Amino acid sequence: TGKAAIIHPTGTGKSFIGFKLAEDNPDKIICWISPSEYIFQTQIENLRATGVEVPKNIRFFTYAKLMIMSEAEIAEIQPDYLIYDEYHRAGAHLWSNGIQKLQKQYPNVPIIGLSATNIRYLDNQRDMAQELFDGNIASEMTLGEAIARGILNPPVYITALYAYEEELKKYERKIKHARYQSVRAKAQEIIDRLRRALEMADGLDVIFAKHMKDKTGKYIVFCEGYKHMTDMLENTRKWFGKVDKSPHIYSVYSDNPETSTEFAEFKKDDSNHLKLLFCIDMLNEGIHVEDVAGVILLRPTVSPIVYKQQIGRALSASGTKEPVIFDIVNNFENLYSVSTIQDEIRAAITYYRYLGENERIVNERFELIDEVQNCRRLFEELEGTLNASWEEMYAKAKAYYGMYGNLDVPRRYKTEDGYSLGNWLCTQRKVRLGQQYGRLSEAQIKRLDEIGMRWESAKDVSWNKYFNEAKAYYDKYGNLKVPAQYVTPTGIHLGCWINNLRVYKRNGVQSNYLTDERIAALETIGMVWDVVDYLWERNYMAAMEFYKENGHLDIPCSYISKDGLKIGMWIRNIRGARKGQYLGNSPTEEQIHRLDDIGMLWDDKFARQWEKGYAEAKIYYESHGNLNMANGYVAPSGYKLGAWISNQREAQKRMKPERKARLDEIGMIWKKPNSWEVRYALAKAYYNEYGNLKMPGDYKADGIWVAKWLNEQKQIYRGNRKGKMLTKEQINRLEAIGIDWGAGKEPHRIMDENKRRTIPEISTEKMRQSKVG
Q1: Range 346-357 average pLDDT
Q2: Which residues contact 358 (CB under 8 A, 6 or more apart)?
Q3: Distance separating alpha carbons of residues 514 and 495, to the nearest angstrom
């Protein structure tokens, strides 16, 4: 289509995709557009750090620069490819003007977009992948998947609270002005309980002291704005005094942190003190700081985009195994819940297990410590008690409709003056459906209809859309065995949705979405809930077909069946799961017996290779009484036993004790024998057999060219091998077995008294066939 959007989390190296495009097309002009020059320069530094040369065909512009360029200036670019880095930012009102001018000039130039998210959450949920790339998403990875696969380190996530007094005062004012006495009484009782819970909760000084394991580490502290940052800086001694009485404090707030002396000092600070860098949004995107121990999120509210970028700063930059994230908020309504990341991890694990790719799963979870769980629950209860009047909230809804043309309001959305419009609209739906106590007149229903009220929830809309696609799939294929990566012709990720439903049902989560009624509806169109058993049977049948065709189950790990099943990988996973080496359930006794019936080899390839070598060594031992052989010895079967024995000596230190014991039983010589002694023994054996050393020039024994070795000893004796000498003992021992040192001399003729004949009369062929003892 000429348009491709990439959605990968912060810290996973999205920019390298753009650099690779430039590298592969050196004769093309790559127009690279980014929110700031500093982000781009940081990406260049990351590329250089890998030893790769920076492509020279990139022309860089910021969105702001593009916005003010004339059409004539844009016409001079003449790009062959466009790269929109952090493309969700291209949706900003002014910046989008530059993008529109660029695309008007070059409508047919291919575009690649790089971003951690495609949704502008606080801009009416605009989907920039849809707007800029027509929904063509080439690659998508969630933050949870990146953690599960070990691309990003799993964090320790701590939630805490500060500055709650203002929140309490706000609610006390609401209680005072509540219309009904019963509401005031109930709300007062809740706020009293809440105040006691807050007073008992640990302060930030205790929480930081408890959870900052790296007392001299570097931490980035994200603030809402300049004033907020200056207010927070006043609390540093109080909050972090129990960690370090003299922490090193830095702050940056310019548009370009590269020009900040404080930022540079923070990066190179390697002292034995706690290092804190207070900053605003500038470090969200593209900025890399080595060895960050964690981040501290001090924010009243935040877009999910910013939230994930700030978290990614810790996950990608940290040199530690467990970066710490302190989520310190002064309200109780996060727009993006950490539980979403946990759901993403579970979904990724399920996906790769079903594919038989367990080895891609590195992390299965991260530690979540909620220091204010009880307080959060009480705040939510209090908020629910103090709903505004219907007419007042209707006016807020009507104003929203007038501004955006719809009432597709996120549940946690609040108006600028603090009214929970999202919660109120959700309540209206529940009241009309009889799911919550209350009264909604026909007149009120009509008035809401007039401003675009959708009585089904966003989740209901989503359900109907996906279920209709699932039913269409069933009608076409007769089942709901949807491949995990399957996308419908309309662009619906049906395979992913089906997999998520299985996770919900198995873990008992999202019961409001996956109701009993919906479970029943899915089962009428062939839903397979236990995919693990289904996939096991499918893989087993493919393994059985392989056995029928080949007579064994010695399947290469890379083997894929004609139906596209990774049978080789599946066999390996089954084998490893039984031994407890891999993630996943061990096969049942019934499954083990069924696999045995088709020739399952429970030892892996390397274990089988070792057993073959051991069997050959045992045969040699039984024949010779030892394992004293040359490295080049080849067994009668053709097996290179000498090399195998040599490898066992090399592997002695890391060898399993039971294997070493088995080799000891058959006379293993762990120290490599003296080469001269081995060859002398073979020469002496020949002498003992024939009474002389007049062997053919190509005579070999146990894989060793003995005749050549004897000739070499003669050359050394005559002084023809510089730097080499024979000892007197070696000379005497060689002469004792009849060596003839002289060149051109008549050979000694030694009579074999027992056989009453001259040894040289024995034919060469006879000597070759003789067994050397």
Answers
A1: 82
A2: 352, 573, 582, 583, 584
A3: 16
